[in-house]
Amino acid sequence: MEARDAMGAFGTGAAGMPPRSLEAPSPRYGEKAIQGLLALCAAVSVATTTAIVVSLLVPTLSFFGEVPIFDFLFGTDWAPTFTPASFGALPVVVGTLSTTLWGMLVAVPVGLLSAIYLSEYASPRVRRVVKPVIEVLAGIPTVAIGIFALIFLSPTVERVLPFFVKVPPFSAGVAGLAIGLMIVPIIASISDDAMRAVPGGLREAAYGLGATRMKVATRVVFPAAISGIVASIVLAGSRAVGETMVVLLAAGASPNLTFDPGVSVQTMTAFIGTTATGDIATGTTTYDTIFAVGSLLFVMTLAMNMVAIRLVRRYREVYD
Amino acid sequence: MAPYDCPRSERARLATAGARATTVGSLNRQPGGDVLKGNVFLALLLLALAVSLLGLTAIIVQAAVNGAPAFSLGLFTDPPSSLAERAGFRPALIGTLYLIGGVILLIVPLGVGAAIYLEEYADGTRWWNRLVELNIQNLAGVPSIIYGILGLAFIVRGPLDLGFIVAAGSLTLGLLVLPTVILAAREAIRAVPPSIREGSLALGATRWQTIRRQVLPASVPGIATGVILAISRAIGETAPLLLVGATTFVTFNPSFFGDDGYSALPVLIFNYATRPQDEFRVLASAGVIVMLIVLLAMNAFAVWLRNRYEQQW
Amino acid sequence: MRSSRWIAVVASASLLTVGVAACGSDDDDSGSGGGGDLSGTIRIDGSSTVAPLSEPVAELFMEENPDVRVTVGTSGTGGGFEKFCNGETDISDASRPIETDEEQACRQNGIETSQLTVANDALSVVVNPENPVTCMTVDQLVQVWGPNSEVDSWSQIDGLQPAYDAELTLFGPGTDSGTFDYFTEAINGEEGVQRSNYNNVGEDDNQTVTGVSGAPGGMGYFGFSFLQENEGKIKALEIDGGDGCVAPSAATVQNGTYVPLGRGLFIYPSAEALQRPEAQEFLQFYLDNVNDVAEQAGFISLTDAQMSKAQSQLDALLGEGGGEETTG
């Protein structure tokens, strides 16, 4: 009975009902309006990116009107707030690279090995406890990590390796160590997800042919998940490059052009943080330096993120 | 042996090559050596795990140990002071509360709206939709201090010219965490099975009615989790706030649009940490404890939320 | 059903939060006991060197006048003047006198002000206690700190007695610091001119103490408060500004013999702000209490002559009818 009535409603003409049009009864302007509104919400992201680019670009262009771009990118004397000012940015770029390098040296082995354990060795119970703990630890505010580096890590390193830190308490190595700890969860979590996404069949085939667990983890699963793993490393690197508070508290403000971990360095982010909150008159070339360095930082992290996004897309596609 | 060319993807090919090499290798070797190597490897893995867990826990423990002497209820009720014994975090706590309130007001409609559009309405092959997606993914990775520059140039000064007020800080932080909310909301909406939508549409509901009455209610827990994660991030962000003005010495509770100045918890902690007197360093650690307590509570709430309302389709 | 319950939970939670916050602020504003019935806002911004004076004064004032809000910002001396001459602040803290172009900007915007000296400071040059040198001339300091200086050992400094052989390790504040501005102007002749290869401790002069005390050939400079707090860890050099070696101390700064590194710390109130009763009270309160606060903060208090000069300048700014009686 109900079925017949239903069919009648759809216009098959049963039971003597007039055929109903399948067209919508009204153009539903409200629907279009809502769709437009929602599209606007999504467009905010494009507006944000545009705003970031504009806010960086305009003063940067004015900056390069005063300072030749070659001097900026390849000069080695960084003294923009001194008189006479000098704008060779290589020391702050190297400062960023140095802290990132030392951070990655710590984070990559620790993160990857933790991920292998979580994905291949850990029982479901252990996983259920450890994985959320790591993710919570990823949420520790960076100012807390910076204070940790300044108050605990730096004196401890000095005590254990007395001549490591040339000019206590600031050093690229200690800041790098703290940054490394901070980004371990990124590498561990995403690599773990990537390795878990490898189909069980591949593992079982290898086990079935007599491989040990270690062999399966390192020779089967790891290579299979490699694009996700590399993506996690690149994302972590991008995060390390963009980190501000840890370096503000622990790396110092001396723009030394060196990769020596015992020496204080100034990173691009620390420079922006210190100078923008400081005493420079707006509109001067020195002030515009903030934006020039910001543009450089933006371009670097953008490039790294695009690489990571490509890689993530690749590893997601194959298994979805 | 004929090449077994069934696996077409690069990945699967790598993996099967590895499996083949593994098997050949292990069939030609003594089993004893493998056991030792396996154990050494396992030890290495556990060591790495211990380092990551311990290292990160040490941060919390050190803050607790260092900050314990200064930790008291006074931290929550006293304003900052030049005297460490009397200094507290109250205006900064209120400032953070207001900031987060503003952030929520901004990211919930914008984030959920954008997520709905991208999941339900957008045609993934059109170039502008792909541009939006690309933008969101990029923005998620932009350093927070760049958002500070954006805030300084556009919100505090520039077109919006709001001045150094709480609303400006909220806007800046909101833009910073918006990609997080959008990503989480998209996951939540995507998790709703198509059959729900199709059933609703089949019964004559419009697209928006379907979304409003079926999809959204089902994805609220996931969205709420995303919002809470975004807020957790916003609470701890210091760098952008440094640039948009949360640095004044304020002893009174700030207001949302008041231009008398405001402060925020992480910024005040940073300020105390860089003061010369040792007592202020202790105070900074105590502030870290306060902040960690707030964050822990929020994360626990998010986990409880996720577990309680998670729907198995 | 479920979603409306959600909305209820979230809404009540946020209402509760806002309610607590509002209640908190109510407790603050509704007069706590005695104190004046003054109300209003006073905005101070400027040097982070002077902030340790302005902040305690503001605190003490707000205790007696709970309805007045005093905020103290630290945008730096230059940043403070920029806001001040724009009319955005009422008082500018400064660790150096106002410059001519800043004065012009103020005049253009109709801001009338006067320089009130509120404390003295002795910029001290410090070395490691092992260092046998006790006195340096300004020329020798220029040799070390000048913009093109390549000196990296104590033995390279001309005419230094007694001879010392250690490696020179320099520590100093960042370029935003008023201390940096003053030192470079006084020693190198122009603000901002200094060699850039030194250990930059940023805002935290405590690191200069740590650094100099840890390096036999260390040298650094900072304000008097750090010298007082760290006696024993570091040694202050006597400075020969042309009339013989003078050690930094309250006496030598007050009698003007510690040159060129003795300096004054200033506040610049705007005449317009002073038309408000709460600002008048505040400025008078400032002068009345600044000597006590200065001692606690490690600065050098004003001499009687300086105090009466400041008082008369304040009175002049207040104009005929607004002058308050000096108390105490």
Would you write up a description of this structure?
With 320 residues, chain A is mostly helical. In chain A, helix 4 runs parallel beside helix 7 and helix 6 crosses helix 7. The model of chain A is unreliable at 6-13 (pLDDT under 50). In chain A, 72% of the residues lie in helices and 1% in strands. Chain A has 13 helices and 2 strands. Chain B is mostly helical and 313 residues long. In chain B, 73% of the residues lie in helices and 0% in strands. Chain B has helices spanning 10-27, 31-67, 74-77, 90-121, 127-139, 144-156, 166-190, 194-202, 207-236, 239-244, 265-273, 278-309. In chain B, helix 2 crosses helix 12 and helix 8 runs antiparallel to helix 9. The two termini of chain B are 46 Å apart. In chain B, 51% of the residues are buried. Chain C is an alpha/beta fold and 328 residues long. Chain C folds into 2 domains: 37-119 and 264-322, Periplasmic binding protein-like II (D-Maltodextrin-Binding Protein, domain 2); 124-260, Periplasmic binding protein-like II (D-Maltodextrin-Binding Protein, domain 2), CATH 3.40.190. Helices cover 42% and strands 17% of the residues of chain C. Chain C is built from 11 helices and 13 strands. In chain C, the strands form 3 sheets. A 5-stranded mixed beta sheet of chain C has the order 2-1-3-13-4. In chain C, helix 2 (51-64) links the parallel strand 1 (40-46) and strand 2 (68-72). In chain C, helix 2 packs across helix 10, helix 3 (77-85) packs parallel to helix 4 (100-108) and helix 10 (277-297) packs antiparallel against helix 11 (304-322). Chain A binds chain C through residues 77-79, 81-84, 86, 167-170, 252-254, 264, 266, 274-275, 277-282, and chain C through 75-79, 82, 147, 169, 171, 174-176, 184, 190-194, 196, 198-202, 207, 210-211, 214-215.
